[in-house]
Q: What sequence folds into this?
């Protein structure tokens, strides 16, 4: 496969044809923040945290879904980008009820970590304070809609790694939420295999293991990447 040469933050690098800016940056050890990206599943550009500046393009582009082009000049950390990322995080924090002190993912939350890295100690927007419920009907896991940022990681993992198709998105805008099967309690979803992959994929405390208390919700996402890699390399196909 042909290689493309591009510049990221003044550093000239090579990337495979068809690679995204996010993949190229990762290969060059240039970190771009993202909440919806997850190794092993396709990207949807939902969170908009990975927006980058590309020379000659007036608008900001999502690094996770923008393919590299020969001669492309990319900037990943400018004042303009920091401004947009801060605004995006503040809007996410204001939209639902992210109360870290009582969250199982406190200290292990990607949303919290990015907010901390940008120095966000307050939110400039009015809090929505929606009345979201907690679904504790599943025997092993729970879903706290107050913590959900609609990154759809759980949906994509459920469909494209586990193949169950239990999780999906219902509604639009601020009324959107993750549902199970035909919008029924998670514990009544016949398609759910109780694999827990959606819980491993969640970047916040929205999906959790029952019995987890504050700051206990650690996740090992390397397991998800391992499954995808093994399938792609056909390591689990028995030989004759």
A:
């Amino acid at each position: 496969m042909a290689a493309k040469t591009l510049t990221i933050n003044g550093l000239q690098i090579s990337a495979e044809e068809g690679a995204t800016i996010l993949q190229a940056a990762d290969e060059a050890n240039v970190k771009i923040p993202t909440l919806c990206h997850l190794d092993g599943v396709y990207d949807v550009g939902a969170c908009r945290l990975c927006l980058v500046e590309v020379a000659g393009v007036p608008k900001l582009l999502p690094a996770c879904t923008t393919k590299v082009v020969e001669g492309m000049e990319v900037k990943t950390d400018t004042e303009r980008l920091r401004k947009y990322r801060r605004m995006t995080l503040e809007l996410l924090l204001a939209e639902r009820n992210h109360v870290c002190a009582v969250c199982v993912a406190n200290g292990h939350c990607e949303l919290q970590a990015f907010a901390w890295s940008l120095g966000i100690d307050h939110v400039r927007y009015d809090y929505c304070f929606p009345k979201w419920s907690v679904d504790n009907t599943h025997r092993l896991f729970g879903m706290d809609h107050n913590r959900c940022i609609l990154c759809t990681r759980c949906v994509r993992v459920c469909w494209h790694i586990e193949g169950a198709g239990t999780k999906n998105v219902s509604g639009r805008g601020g009324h959107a939420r993750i549902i199970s099967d035909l919008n029924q309690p998670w514990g009544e979803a016949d398609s759910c295999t109780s694999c827990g992959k959606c819980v491993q994929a969640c970047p916040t405390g929205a999906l959790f293991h029952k019995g987890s208390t504050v700051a206990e919700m650690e996740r090992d996402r390397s397991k998800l990447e391992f499954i995808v890699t093994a399938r792609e390399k056909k390591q689990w196909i028995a030989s004759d």
Notes: Helices lie at 21-27, 79-95, 110-117, 153-162, 197-201, 222-232.
